[in-house]
UniProtKB/TrEMBL annotation:
BP terms from Gene Ontology: protein targeting to membrane
Enzyme class: transferase
Keywords: Acyltransferase, Membrane, Transferase, Transmembrane, Transmembrane helix
Domain notes: The DHHC domain is required for palmitoyltransferase activity.
Membrane topology classification: Multi-pass membrane protein
PANTHER family documented for this protein: ZINC FINGER DHHC DOMAIN CONTAINING PROTEIN
Domain spans labelled Palmitoyltransferase DHHC: 70-137
Protein source organism: Achlya hypogyna
The protein, known as: Palmitoyltransferase
């Protein structure tokens, strides 16, 4: 079923591309639109194909004593294995995911420790791409272009708002699951939580490249320890 959502998303992207490429516009506007669309497609591919976290087996094989100390008595009966701290079982993926936020049907993948950055980037790049396309297509006499304009404004506004919601959750140190369950955040503030997922090198913030701590699955510590964690 989730593959249908992916197909629908790609179909909508294709329709928007056709509307833009067949419209009469300045070369500069076309270049900007194609750049935003490329960023949207790259981050979407990352959100689909990137593993949301290290597997439990890989994590348990770690030689890091800090990680070993955290692998205590939680057990996942569905996976029939130890469930480390901050791991949550996804009933769709049928696996345990670190810092799981939610399972996204539009990417057919979980939003977790290793996919949160690319998912947020995808939301904002898609929003920017849709809103920019809608702006340059406004006033077109083509019925198809007018339809894409309205659709792009709607999708762009919706995903932009959803992206802001995820930044709010990031500031609170919560996942969507925490928010729905009414749990408290970790109290570390926006910047510390942002750097956990995006790193400290600002020029890499808009690029779907993960900081080493996330790429290696080492952001496993308690909130007190994370407050002093070097996340570069």
């Amino acid at each position: 079923m989730t593959k249908l959502f992916v197909g629908l998303a790609l179909g909508l992207m294709g329709l928007k591309a056709i509307a833009v490429l067949t419209a009469s516009m300045a070369l500069k506007d076309l270049a900007i639109d194609m750049t935003l669309m490329a960023c949207m497609l790259v981050t979407y591919a990352c959100a689909i194909f990137m593993s949301p976290s290290l597997s439990v087996a890989t994590l348990l094989a770690s030689d890091d004593p800090a990680v070993e100390a955290e692998n205590e008595a939680r057990y996942c009966e569905k996976c029939d294995c130890i469930k480390p701290e901050h791991y949550h079982h996804c009933s769709v993926c049928q696996r345990c995911v670190s810092h799981m936020d939610h399972h996204c049907p539009w990417t057919s993948n979980c939003v977790g420790l290793r996919t949160k950055k690319v998912f947020i980037l995808f939301l904002f790049y898609t929003s920017a791409s849709c809103l920019f396309s809608a702006t340059i297509l406004m006033g077109s006499k083509s019925l198809f272009a007018s339809f894409i304009t309205v659709l792009s404004f709607g999708i762009g506004g919706l995903l932009g708002g959803y992206g802001c919601f995820h930044l709010y959750l990031l500031a609170q140190g919560k996942t969507t699951l925490d928010f729905l369950a009414g749990r408290q955040g970790n109290g570390l503030g926006f910047w510390c939580n942002f750097q956990v997922y995006f790193g400290t090198e600002w020029w890499l913030y808009p690029v779907p490249v993960l900081p080493p701590s996330v790429r290696l699955g080492l952001v496993m510590r308690s909130d007190d320890e994370r407050a002093g964690l070097n996340v570069t």
